[in-house]
Automatic annotation (TrEMBL), chain A:
A matching Pfam family: Fer4_11
Domain (4Fe-4S ferredoxin-type): residue spans on this chain: 7-36, 157-186
PROSITE patterns: 4FE4S_FER_2 (PS51379)
GO terms for cellular component: cell envelope; membrane; periplasmic space
UniProt KW keywords: 3Fe-4S, 4Fe-4S, Electron transport, Iron, Iron-sulfur, Metal-binding, Repeat, Transport
First-listed, main subcellular location of the protein, grouped into a coarse class: other
Name of this chain's protein: Respiratory nitrate reductase subunit beta
Cell location: Cell envelope
Record-level Gene Ontology MF annotations: 3 iron, 4 sulfur cluster binding; 4 iron, 4 sulfur cluster binding; electron transfer activity; metal ion binding
Origin: domain of life: Bacteria
Gene Ontology biological-process annotations: anaerobic respiration
From TrEMBL, chain B:
Coiled-coil spans in chain: none
Source species of the chain: Marinobacter fuscus
Keyword tags: Electron transport, Heme, Iron, Metal-binding, Signal, Transport
Signal peptide: 1-25
Name of this chain's protein: Dimethylsulfide dehydrogenase
Iron is among the record's keywords: yes
Pfam family, one: EB_dh
Keyword hit for NADP: no
Domain Cytochrome c-552/DMSO reductase-like haem-binding: 64-179
GO CC terms: periplasmic space
Molecular function in Gene Ontology: heme binding; metal ion binding
């Protein structure tokens, strides 16, 4: 799907602290009302983990090797988590309920397996993976829509659902392997991350990026050779797409996380990193080892006072350089 | 019964017709008053005498329907035309779904009543649940129109669509796949009821749709002409059916709407 | 030898670090010798059993610090929740001193660094003339809140002594001694309570007893000023609604950065709520009116008088500072560390960059890190200590008694000092600031929706607990219920629970803090020894709140049932 220009985001997983400020910024701006309560257009999940919606990585969707759509399992409301409500009035004001509690017994939510990860103490490991729509170059959602309701904007490649044309067939929900299209039961139409296009059109970054406490997000156009995206994705190749094998050609990229060494049985440090390389490769493909090497080398250069263009970008000194929206 | 075979989609038709005769999963009824109808057949639009007063205009269980002829036709899986439909298409599913229909008109109104067996009452549209639905599609022009959503914008169809989660009938038009459009004039009324039975398979949906015979407007089927080509489509929510995942009549059934007896 | 100049310059002095000497017939040695001797007891090989750290790791870390061009050790607040924090902190200081990290090459940092804000102090102390009474926080809370009873219920006296070096009787004696000697101020019971910006009934240990004690003592009047119905507001005679964030003019600064954030009144306060400042202006107005009407004059309180008949005039600077906006403007436009910026400019930019006047120990230089103690390392200004130098020897009688004259090590109390086998700690929540936002539904939907504990999967399996089950945590003071969440990153003999849950969020409103005990570290209660004397925010005892322990079991359905269903 060729567009004139393509906006893109890079996220450095070494810097994400899992604070969910991005999630909350997005939620309060777009999805805290009108049937969207269960949706997290931006969510931050702990990996390894089941993520949000629960087990989405095993739900199918995307494309097969021949480029044909792959059918998947439709997530249930339980897989997303039921957005429970509270008896604030009854518990705190009228005193008719004995204590403050959710109206349903919570069994799953967008951050249910937070910090769980894998491994045994002291060699347990996990990291945070913030996820939003990848505004793919080959969107599975778009290919799956029999109504031609999903389109990519020519000027920035943002993938949108035409709410007039959508008839709520949920093919897109099924086809997106990242499960980043959601079905709004209240209006019987599908909805998704709009990359904050009303902000983008004013020259502002998305809310998730603007609010990011860890300063882990860069936004720019793929074709801007002076911009941060080009440097991280093309020049240094430290930013990689999530599950490239799903075939949608994401425009969101991740700098994979380094990890500390493992401890041996006597508490000695082993020459083996806590997060297994194969695991990272299962998420971000073959480029992981090279990307981690580059980051290690450049970090050392910076620590040795030799200077590093890559590290200066990854540190994210100021927003003006992190967000290049023209 | 007159037979008229339009020339379009002959191959598909041949295949589907042969299976329609063999499958009988939901066809336990051996009511001698029910006439089996195949695509291409013509059936008569019954006349509701002027002296009969319908208490509720679209009552799906009105006594009048016991007195009017009942037709039965087999609906089979629609051929997939979009990759998403193709993905969910089961080529081994040859089973015909039987739809019972009755057509009648009063002095000023045109009625169609549909009933079919459905073991589950699927009324919700949720992230992973699909609703039941039924549609009647009319060729606006003659039977040369493609029965598969019309033959392009110049030769469209008018569709009356009932869905289990609401009591109004959607009045739609289409001129080819993916072009279904909500019409500005919503002129069709209707009502439905689900009759659960102890043996779930015997439970039934009853749906009535009706419209004033004289209705102007673009894409509104002309219900005053003598012959009206019609096909049916059925969605069972329980089987995740929606959009092109449906069972349909594979070619027009002709409604003889003339006043001759 | 010696000099009259009060500075740290050694001049021609070449101090002996090591050796034994005889001075006027008395055998003496150096502090460094004593420090070395004590430290030798704790080789990495010997500490491995306690810490689980391999000696190589310890040595590698030590060399890492020694080799660093600059090294700062941050003493976080969590450390100060353990009774052995003082030892840990002293060891940090020693490590940095031995590896040459001071001033521009690093040093010790704490979460309590504050900037110099003279105008703030001026307003909060009535121009420095009538400062409020201060107490050592933990001491007042433990005594006034009746926490000693719970401490006795929980700990095994003999085991406690083995672990931390003192038992409960000795701790009580030492507390009393600190009060009697005037080392730490304690003012006894309260008569009334106006509570602002502290969810004290949520926060304090032995929570139920603490609350009952306070409500009894303040039975005449308890007013709570609050933005929401928190667990402290719930018990008030009156709740005065306060304007929340973005509804009132406000200034916030803190030591981690050099900015002061300016909050404007973006939206008007909801309903009848008002900024804290305005509420106090109105309260003082009424108090002054009544004091005059009743002929109440100055009341002597130590060195100062409490003047209810002029309290409003004093508070508002004779009517000049009636609102939050007035007070904000006054501080912004008169504070030397803000450099004369107007309130309008500051509000437009959203923050003010503090200038050199903000530095407390030395000027805060533009575009340079605020390195710890450069005034001492570069400027040779004495430290604010008894000797003027960093102190590694304290011969205060209590330090002698507890064998702590030089940096050394102690264990913390934990399960080994009780009959309950699981370590338990309650770090800060990531879902709010203490209990702020803790019961917010958007935050809760990103957690488990109800209070939860973290448990190692192996321990969970042993006890027949599955992820999501409701469990009972219990010790000598009672029990509470929470949802279990599996967490492999915690040792199998420990339980973690983030703090900040409101008591009203727990099943039966029975919070963790009802059964959670605390201790005081008697060393932190000494006074009368140079710099070791009560100084607000510099030397005062806090509760050491991570000393408690628990046991765990699957909750029985009848234990957690809604009382109305029984
Ligand atoms: S991530 Fe999913 S929803 Fe977003 S463009 Fe790609 S396929 Fe579509
Ligand atoms: S705001 Fe930034 S640091 Fe925080 S969770 Fe989101 S991406 Fe991570």
């Amino acid at each position: 799907m060729t567009v004139k220009r393509q906006l893109s985001m890079v996220l450095d997983l070494n810097k994400c602290i899992g604070c969910q400020t991005c999630t909350t910024a997005c939620k309060l701006m777009w999805t805290n009302r009108n049937g969207r309560e269960f949706m997290y257009w931006n969510n931050v999940e702990t990996q390894p983990g089941k993520g949000y919606p629960r087990d989405y990585q095993n739900m199918g969707g995307g494309f097969d090797e021949a480029g044909a759509l792959r059918a998947g399992r439709q997530p249930s409301q339980e897989d997303y988590g039921i957005p429970w409500e509270y008896n604030y009035e009854e518990a705190l004001m009228t005193g008719t309920d004995p204590w403050l509690r959710p109206n349903v017994k919570p069994t799953w939510g967008a951050n249910w397996d937070e910090d769980q990860g894998e491994g045994d103490y002291p060699n347990s490991y996990y990291f945070y993976l913030p996820r939003l729509c990848n505004h793919c170059a080959n969107p599975g959602c778009l290919a799956a829509c029999s109504r031609n309701a999903i389109y990519k904007r020519q000027e920035d490649g943002i993938v949108l659902i035409d709410q007039e044309r959508c008839r709520g067939y949920r093919y897109c929900v099924n086809a997106c392997p990242y499960k980043k299209v959601y079905f709004n039961e209240q209006i019987s139409k599908s909805e998704k991350c709009i990359f904050c296009y009303p902000r983008i059109e004013k020259g502002l970054p998305t809310a998730c990026a603007q609010q990011c406490v860890g300063r882990i997000r860069w936004i720019g156009y793929r074709d801007d050779t002076e911009g941060p995206i080009h440097m991280l994705v093309e020049k240094y190749k430290v930013a990689l797409p999530l599950h490239p094998e799903w075939g949608t050609q994401p425009n969101v990229f991740y700098v994979p996380p380094l990890s500390p060494p493992k401890y041996g049985p006597d508490g000695e440090m082993l020459d083996e990193s806590r997060i297994p390389l194969e695991y990272l490769e299962s998420l971000f493909g073959d480029g992981v080892a090279a990307a981690l090497d580059t980051i290690r080398t450049e970090r050392q250069a910076k620590a040795d006072g030799k200077g590093s263009e890559l590290m200066d970008t990854l540190i994210g000194y100021n927003h003006a350089e992190m967000f290049k929206l023209s | 019964m007159k037979r008229s075979f339009p020339t379009t989609t002959f191959a598909v038709l041949g295949l589907m017709m042969s299976v329609a005769g063999t499958a009988a999963a939901d066809h336990s009824e051996r009511n001698p008053n029910v006439t089996e109808v195949n695509p291409g057949d013509t059936v008569k639009v019954a006349r509701i005498p002027d002296n009969i007063y319908l208490r509720t205009q679209d009552d799906p269980d009105d006594l009048i329907w016991d007195r009017l002829p009942v037709y039965r036709t087999g609906l089979t899986t629609a051929p997939p035309v979009h990759p998403s439909v193709m993905l969910r298409f089961d080529p081994t599913d040859m089973e015909a779904k039987h739809l019972y229909f009755q057509v009648a008109k009063s002095k000023d109104r045109f009625y169609i009543r549909l009933r079919w067996k459905d073991a589950s009452e699927d009324r919700s549209t949720t992230v992973d649940q699909f609703r039941d639905g039924v549609a009647v599609q009319y060729a606006i022009a003659g039977p040369e129109t493609s029965y598969m959503m019309g033959s392009g914008p110049d030769n469209p169809v008018n569709i009356w669509y009932w869905r289990s989660d609401q009591e109004q009938i959607e009045n739609l038009a289409a001129g080819g796949f993916g072009s279904t459009t909500h019409l500005p004039e919503q002129t069709v009324t209707g009502a439905s009821e689900y009759f659960p039975e102890e043996i779930a398979q015997d439970s039934e949906w009853h749906v009535v749709m009706s419209r004033l015979i004289d209705e102007d407007g673009e894409h509104q089927v002309d219900l005053s002409r003598d012959t009206i080509p019609v096909v049916f489509a059925l969605w069972e929510g329980h089987h995740n059916e929606r959009d092109g995942n449906k069972k349909v009549t594979h070619n027009w059934i002709m409604l003889d709407n003339s006043d001759s007896q | 030898m010696g000099s009259d100049d009060k500075d740290l310059k050694l001049g021609s002095v070449d101090p002996a670090l090591e050796g034994r000497f005889e001075v006027n017939g008395i055998k003496v040695t150096t502090v460094f010798e004593q420090v070395k001797k004590e430290a030798a007891k704790y080789t990495p090989e010997k500490t491995q059993k306690q810490t689980g750290l391999h000696p190589d790791v310890v040595r590698q870390e030590a060399r890492h610090i020694a080799n660093a061009r600059k090294a700062i050790i941050m003493l976080g607040y969590i450390t100060s929740s353990y009774s052995n924090c003082l030892y840990t902190a002293w060891a940090y200081a020693l490590t940095l001193a031995l590896t040459g990290h001071g001033g521009r090459t690093g040093g010790l940092d704490t979460s309590w660094v504050v900037w110099n804000h003279p105008k703030w102090t001026e307003l909060s102390t009535f121009g420095g003339k009538k400062s409020a009474r201060y107490e050592a926080g933990g001491l007042g809370e433990v005594l006034r809140g009746g926490m000693m009873e719970g401490i006795r219920n929980h700990f095994d006296n003999k085991k406690l002594k083995e672990r931390v070096g003192f038992d409960i009787d000795e701790m009580e004696e030492m507390i009393q001694e600190s009060i009697d000697e005037g080392w730490m101020p304690y003012y006894g019971e309260i008569k009334g309570m106006i509570a602002v910006a502290d969810n004290t009934f949520r926060r304090n240990k032995m929570a139920e007893k603490y609350r009952e004690e306070h409500l009894r003592q303040a039975s005449e009047l308890y007013v709570n000023v609050n933005v929401r119905m928190d667990s402290t507001a719930e018990w008030a005679d009156y709740v005065l609604p306060a304007a929340s964030h973005y509804e009132a003019w406000d200034l916030r600064t803190q030591g981690y950065h050099r900015f002061c954030n300016v909050f404007t009144e973006s939206v008007p306060p909801v309903g009848e709520s008002k900024p804290d400042w305005d509420i106090m202006a109105l309260l003082t107005k009424k108090i002054q009116e009544r004091a005059i009407a009743r002929g109440i004059g100055p009341i002597q309180d130590g060195d100062v008088t409490r003047d209810l008949h002029t309290i409003h005039d004093d508070y508002t600077n004779n009517g000049q500072l009636m609102t939050a906006l007035d007070a904000t403007r006054y501080i912004v436009e008169n504070s030397p560390e803000f450099g004369g910026v107007t309130l309008e400019d500051a509000a437009e930019r959203g923050f003010i960059v503090l200038n050199e006047h903000a530095g407390t120990n030395q000027p805060l230089q533009k575009d340079q890190p605020y390195n710890p103690f450069t005034a001492q390392t570069d400027g040779k200004k004495p430290y604010e200590t008894l000797t003027g130098r960093i102190t590694f020897y304290v011969d205060h009688p209590r330090f002698v008694k507890l064998k702590s004259t030089v940096p050394t090590a102690r264990l913390y109390a934990g399960p080994e000092a009780s009959n309950y086998p699981l370590h338990f700690y309650s770090p800060h929540t990531r879902w709010g600031i203490h209990s702020n936002w803790r019961s917010n539904k958007y935050m809760l939907r990103l957690q488990r929706g109800e209070p939860n504990i973290y448990i190692n999967p192996k321990l969970a399996e042993q006890r027949g607990i599955k992820d999501g089950d409701r469990v009972r945590l219990f010790n000598g003071n009672g029990a509470f219920f929470a949802q279990a969440k599996l967490y492999p990153s915690i040792p199998a003999d420990s339980i973690m629970m983030e703090h900040g849950w409101e008591p009203h969020q727990y099943i039966h409103r029975r919070p963790m803090n009802n059964s959670h005990v605390t201790l005081l570290q008697p060393l932190e209660l000494v006074g009368g020894w140079g710099h070791l004397k009560f100084i607000y925010a510099k030397w005062n005892a806090n509760q050491v709140i991570h000393e408690s322990s628990y046991d765990i079991a699957l909750a029985k359905p009848e234990e957690i049932a809604d009382p109305r269903t029984i």
